[in-house]
């Protein structure tokens, strides 16, 4: 698999993109990486295979895989009322939860009936610091000022939700009695040999040579250089294109019954199956097409960064595209879209 008919440096200049990293994979392995530009405007820090970008909401793919692994281990149940195992916080009972309770399946497919409050889940304000997930869910932080509750009957509507993934994070921490990043390290990163990815990110972590700065649509540094999202399960992952590709390869291998993590073929296939009548949403990923032509995607868009994962599990091909630019348009309408359309699958 390769790129065709695209002059990447020219397109980067057109879109004011300073840095770009691409990992291509097929037949169960990475078949190539391509790196362009710099990690910071007007610097000599060049993008390479070890360069770390903010994955933003692609973090939800990682959370989906962790949740599935914990279901496999018996720590969680996809279709159980999450309040059965939540300890430190509970989904408030109300008129919408009388007939249907919120489940992990609902949360992973954005069908829990929870809608994020307007203006919530912004990047870290270093003067205010990191909130606890409980503070977020109770509406007692700068990042979410309204208590999280079910606003529609579960499975009745689709609402993309960071809050839903915060609930998953709290559930995992309650069940394992460990911090979320520790559980990810133990169950995902260490078994897969993923070494250049972090969730427990602080400002001192990111101010290092291999971390990329964020840039706006004009190619200028964003405030603070390294925008951090203090909700790991929803959008806290910092990673390389090749590490992210390894994660996707694990999912694709699990679908074939060849998981390194011990995820069963049936549960892996559940991740890429349309959920509750919504053809476009799986568990932590989005779907297009069907059968052999099935495409799974995960998109990341935050302050200073945009990225995309696309994979064709039945064709055993895919790509990860990461940039340190927020263009102000949907990924498919900018340079990521041009690269995606140029991929020879």
From TrEMBL:
Annotated ranges, domain Beta-lactamase-related: 8-326
Pfam families: Beta-lactamase (PF00144)
Coiled-coil positions: none
InterPro entries listed in its UniProt record: AmpC-like (IPR050491), Beta-lactam-related (IPR001466), Beta-lactam/transpept-like (IPR012338)
UniProt-listed PANTHER family: D-ALANYL-D-ALANINE-CARBOXYPEPTIDASE/ENDOPEPTIDASE AMPH, PENICILLIN-BINDING PROTEIN 4
Name of the protein described by the UniProt record: CubicO group peptidase (Beta-lactamase class C family)
Organism: Ureibacillus acetophenoni
């Amino acid at each position: 698999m390769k790129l065709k008919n695209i002059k990447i440096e020219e397109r980067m200049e057109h879109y004011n993109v300073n840095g770009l990293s691409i990992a291509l994979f097929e037949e169960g392995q990475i078949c190539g990486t391509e790196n362009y530009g710099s990690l910071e405007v007007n610097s000599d820090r060049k993008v390479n295979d070890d360069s770390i970008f903010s994955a933003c909401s692609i973090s939800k793919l990682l959370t989906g895989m962790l949740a599935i692994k914990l279901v496999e281990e018996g720590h969680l149940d996809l279709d159980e009322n999450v309040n059965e195992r939540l300890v430190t916080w509970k989904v408030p009972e109300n008129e919408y939860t009388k007939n249907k309770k919120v489940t992990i399946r609902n949360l992973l497919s954005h069908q829990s009936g929870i809608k994020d409050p307007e203006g919530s889940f912004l990047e870290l304000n270093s003067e205010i610091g990191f909130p606890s997930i409980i503070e977020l869910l109770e509406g007692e932080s700068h990042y979410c000022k309204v208590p999280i509750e079910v606003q529609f009957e579960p499975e009745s509507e689709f609402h993309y939700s960071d809050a839903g993934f915060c609930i998953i994070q709290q559930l995992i921490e309650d069940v394992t009695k460990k911090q979320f990043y520790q559980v990810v390290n133990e169950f995902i990163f260490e078994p897969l040999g993923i070494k250049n990815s972090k969730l427990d990110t602080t400002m001192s972590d990111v101010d290092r040579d291999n971390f990329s700065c964020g840039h706006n649509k004009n190619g200028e540094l964003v405030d603070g250089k390294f925008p951090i999202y203090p909700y790991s399960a929803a959008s806290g992952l910092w990673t390389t294109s090749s590490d992210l590709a390894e994660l996707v390869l694990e999912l694709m291998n699990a679908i074939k019954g060849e998981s390194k993590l011990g995820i069963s073929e049936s549960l892996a296939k559940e991740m890429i199956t349309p959920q509750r009548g919504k053809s476009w949403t799986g568990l932590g990923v989005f779907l297009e097409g069907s059968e052999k032509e099935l495409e799974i995607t995960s998109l990341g868009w935050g302050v200073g960064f945009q990225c995309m994962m696309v994979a064709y599990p039945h064709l055993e091909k895919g790509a990860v595209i990461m940039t340190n630019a927020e263009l102000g348009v949907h990924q498919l309408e900018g340079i990521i879209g041009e690269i995606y359309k140029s991929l020879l699958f």
